[in-house]
Amino acid sequence: MRASDAFIDAHDEVILSDFLDSYTSDPQVHRFINTFCYMMFAMSCRGASAGEFVHCFREMFKAADTSYPRGGSGAIADAYLRGLERHGGQLHLGRGVVRVLSDGGKVTGVLTDDGKIAADVVVSNVGIDLTLQLAGEESMGLDYARYVAGLDYSGSGVVAKYLLDKQVLDMPAIIYMSDACARGIGTWQAAASAEAVAGLVKERHPL
Q: N or C of the chain: less Cβ packing under 10 Å?
């Protein structure tokens, strides 16, 4: 992958499926790219940015790995914690945030179910819509609130990893790509996503 930064920037607003169509209609290629698109962004190539995908795909090949961290996924949180503590930060567990506090358009901290924590900067990873609720539309501005309301949700996924006592395959990795991935999201997945956004959750969906 040798795509230049200029090429990536030029395709940032291009939908990935349209980008693929301009090169090939081969269902195997679409299936392969869409599978990786879900792995990276939790959305099909019908909604993802071609520029963002090419950037991530390029960096993955440059690093010669699929970004599985040494020590497992828990190592990512541990690395963040080490960085936090190295810069004087503290970890507070079991304290749910009730409100992001601000004064005159400047954040001042958070209100938790166990009291206030003062802060000059608040970083939220609970999702853009819930962050808006915690901060309040009056603090973020009505234009920003309308922007958030107009966003589409990505999908979601569950990853299960198994540790085996011995090697069972000669291949380093196997990726299964279903027929539903050939041209983007499958019909039942689209229906399930629409139901989830509408607040309707079924007990079971086909796998």
A: C
80: tokens are: 């963040």
- Concatenating the DSSP letter of every residue in 126-179 gives S-HHHHHHHH-HHHH-HHHHHHHHTPPP-----------SS---SSS------G
pTM above 0.85, yes or no: no
Q: What Rg value do the Cα atoms of the chain yield, rounded?
A: 21
Residue 29 tokens read as 């290629």
Helices H, strands E: what count in the chain?
9, 3
DSSP state of 180: G
Answer positive or negative: Cα dihedral of 178, 179, 185, 187. negative
Positive/negative CA dihedral, 73, 74, 75, 80: positive
Average pLDDT score over the chain:
83
Do the beta carbons of residue 157 and residue 148 sit within 8 Å? no
85's CB contacts (< 8 A; 6+ apart) are: 91
| pLDDT score for 189 | 57
CA 89 to CA 94: how far, in whole Å? 17
Give the tokens for residue 35.
């599978």
What is the end-to-end Cα distance of the chain in Å, rounded?
A: 33
C-beta neighbour count of 101 within 10 angstroms: 19
Structure tokens given for 144: 């920003």
